[in-house]
Amino acid sequence: MTSPEAKRLWRRAIKEHFNCQCVYCGETYELHELTLDHVIPRFYGGETTTRNLVPSCRKCNQNKGTNNWLTWMRQTFGHTPREKLILSHIK
Ligand SMILES: [Zn+2]
After folding, report:
1. Measured distance CA(79)–CA(37) in Å, rounded
2. How far is the CA of 59 from the centre of ligand 1 (A)?
3. CB within 8 A of 41, min separation 6: which ones?
């Protein structure tokens, strides 16, 4: 998983796993519009692994920042079924 091509495919696979939806707001985007967000921010030692990466639109990625994802998500969107999607992905 070191070549740029392997990396690109890996990032794409994570987005496709979530049907190209931002896990936080639930909107569907084009592949190139989605970023990958560290569920546990790198700032807090979150790793760049599949389990810690979820597709996120730029807006959610920026707004979430270094907040706790669940706290931020509930404050922003209330309780949504997407919490479970994320939980089952990161555990
Ligand atoms: Zn979003």
Report:
1. 20
2. 6
3. 65, 66
**pLDDT 10s digits, 32-88:** 999 999 999 999 999 999 999 999 999 999 999 999 999 999 999 999 999 999 999
Among left, alpha and beta (phi > 0; psi -120 to 50; other), residue 19 is left
The SS3 of residue 55 is strand
Q: Which residue has the tokens 């970023």?
A: 35
Token pair recorded at residue 77:
């969107």
Q: How far is the CA of 7 from the centre of ligand 1 (A)?
A: 23
Are 24 and 56 in contact by the 8 Å Cβ rule? The answer is yes
Helix (H) or strand (E) holding 51, with range, is none
Ligand 1: centre distance to CA 88 (Å): 19
Residue 60: how many other CB atoms lie within 10 Å: 24
Q: Provide the whole-model pTM.
A: 0.93
